[in-house]
Amino acid sequence: MNNNKIIKDAYLESITNKRCGDKIEELLYIQNKILNAKKIVVATNNKKKFDIINNILISLFKNYDKPLPTIEKLDLPTNSVDLTRFPAINKGLIAVDTSDADIVIARGRLGAPGSGSMLIIMNNKGRCLSASLSPTSLIHKKDIEDAVKDELNEALERIGINIDISI
Amino acid sequence: MNNNKIIKDAYLESITNKRCGDKIEELLYIQNKILNAKKIVVATNNKKKFDIINNILISLFKNYDKPLPTIEKLDLPTNSVDLTRFPAINKGLIAVDTSDADIVIARGRLGAPGSGSMLIIMNNKGRCLSASLSPTSLIHKKDIEDAVKDELNEALERIGINIDISI
Amino acid sequence: MNNNKIIKDAYLESITNKRCGDKIEELLYIQNKILNAKKIVVATNNKKKFDIINNILISLFKNYDKPLPTIEKLDLPTNSVDLTRFPAINKGLIAVDTSDADIVIARGRLGAPGSGSMLIIMNNKGRCLSASLSPTSLIHKKDIEDAVKDELNEALERIGINIDISI
Amino acid sequence: MNNNKIIKDAYLESITNKRCGDKIEELLYIQNKILNAKKIVVATNNKKKFDIINNILISLFKNYDKPLPTIEKLDLPTNSVDLTRFPAINKGLIAVDTSDADIVIARGRLGAPGSGSMLIIMNNKGRCLSASLSPTSLIHKKDIEDAVKDELNEALERIGINIDISI
């Protein structure tokens, strides 16, 4: 598979000390992986947060003129991940391990209690394709809707995917 | 120790489904942990990146009127972390495991090749206290100096520490 | 998928405090996953270790009257995993991320330098299906061939797969 | 610190491809770390399992003529770790992050549901010093007391610590 070749090449560059930053084919691979997903699982069982993410994804696939994937929410309680060192990452892995999603989107605490939140986009094996962070809610005063929206937006933009490509 | 109590309480809230976001004592604990560090190790062996971070830290401790900790760079090659799933996190853990630092600051790739970079602040056990992300360098066109500076700034601001408190 | 249902059920048992040990359908799932693999990647680029594992696997599939999967070795240097906290686990993840194997078998150091070795069997997403440990080589005096053979044997036996079922 | 030097040297050997197995000073470091612990936390809130481990540790320190450390059990429910990829490891990390123990001993599931159990010995930063595995309980028919006893025994023996040195 092409993907495996890209990762293997990047590994070899790192081992031989020849790596100099992300490459365009790596970025295109990540973009294609997300935009050609057949099934996306959102690792939350909070209806409100799911709806926000779902709506953004519907616009995204429409704007890119791509078939809309199945978008599901994880029907498992996930608060137990807060006992791990990286709650958002481990929330994503629960979705990876209990579904056959191509892409998982998880949102949760970044690290230690007090460390604010992380939204992470993973592939079907649990690898991190992109992410974004929000300050601790004690500092930012956004409502949860805006926070989640901005996070998904930012996680996509930093890898060159723009939710609203018409603008 | 007070810290252990804070984390234990947060765990119990999560298990019993009573957690509702970060608490002020958790944030203060993180801030104090960083601002009272005796030794900070910066997990890079790139002289230029180290100097940028070192200079910001010197201003920070001066502005907060705190004694300047020992600030050292890790004298180990770290490119091998790029073969792990979370390179920046694993770079930080190398510094945690080979030093007696109170605080470790690491910068590296966030996840898969192409996923942009992460700066992470860890405690002496390898727990994540804060972090920040940059878009893949294919997208942002900042020079490395500005990128590192903005990342450290943001990682501190999102937990309520402002580098330039006089402004 | 059936598998996802098994894992989801196990998760729900754990969250609701009703879990009481491994279940027969979980064990059968793991056994079937291994015995019906189409492609196995052995995460070593040491020819000798690969040959030992390859030979055991050939006997195994023959004894169970199952079609022999493609068995490949990872053609990447992996010594860099020794800088991570769990070298054998991270060696396995390199194979997971650079191949389309159903099953990955990795062997490497268990943890800190001096902690002896681990052989681990993972699925295509990087989940651990079984493993075995050897004492540090300073203590056991087996040659490497016997050590690897015993480890693979033990990793399979502890989940109810017997290499030599005729005996 | 001596320890950091040992780990740094091991890392450099691995990076430069000169590593050839565990070294005697690494083993001695691990042994000393365990036998000179001031505080050991056993990551279980099961009274019976704690008592077994506590009793073995009391004999151990007596036989080695070492001062008995404080030995405590973790007073936190830990069943939520079963939702992570490596439950025993994550159970240990909960003890590392909520206590000031020198040494943590955790026992839990190795990996996926059905994969049997692992006992792990960690240092104060969460690094793995040793471990041992048991087959899934569907296969071994030991009672829990004997299983835990054998596991702790084996985890110590494989790094050259013998519970009953008089024999």
UniProtKB/TrEMBL annotation, chains A, B, C, D:
Native organism: Methanococcus aeolicus (strain ATCC BAA-1280 / DSM 17508 / OCM 812 / Nankai-3)
InterPro entries in UniProt: B12-dep_deHydtase_bsu, HcgB
The name this protein goes by in its record: Uncharacterized protein
Lineage per the UniProt record: Archaea, Methanobacteriati, Methanobacteriota, Methanomada group, Methanococci
Gene3D superfamilies: B12-dependent dehydatase associated subunit, Helix hairpin bin
